[in-house]
Amino acid sequence: MEKSRSKLIVGISGATGAILGVRLLQTLQHSNVDTHLVFSNWGARTLIHETAYTVEQVQQMATCHYAAQDQGAVISSGSFVTDGMVVCPCSVRSLAAIAHGHGDSLIHRAADVVLKERRKLLLVVREAPLSDIHLENMLKLSRMGAVIFPPVPAFYTHPQSIDDLIDQTILRILDQFGVHLSSPKRWNGRMSTTGAEPEGQRHSGKRKR
Predict the structure, then answer these.
(1) What gap in Å lies between CA 24 and CA 20, rounded to an integer?
(2) What is the pTM of this model?
(3) Superfamily of domain 6-204
């Protein structure tokens, strides 16, 4: 039998960090992974506020897309086999709804299906500081098998831009689904002896000696 393409559900909820979901879709556009996208209502609103993209432009980056309340969509059924789902970014409202089984939107329903089918669910929770409620919901979902993945930046890569921070986060997210992209930003075990170049020196072309 011919091996089928991988399928990944991508939810973009209303937390700040919409660009993370956009970059995830962009990265997977020319891969062997079909993306099934759903925005929450507030996810669409946040995208417009935070980025220069329209909802329609981002939807075109995905293989398929669905309306926020379309409970009849294919991703709302466990018989539609996927490799899992990532909510990127994930608001604490969506975190709570998923933790307590409130399938009142397609993102929440699709996540519920992924949990009940024992597939991988990864939540890029974007909130700080975290209350006891948030932490309890995270722990509850982690015990169910979900991966809680706050988009915490790595500085050992000596990032030079926000794009560098975003790309490193997407690299780590895709690792969780067995999509391993080559990158010079992976940790290689070698410690820098000089550290990152100071901002002023980098711009002036001078190096610290």
Answers:
(1) 6
(2) 0.90
(3) Flavin prenyltransferase-like (3.40.50.1950)
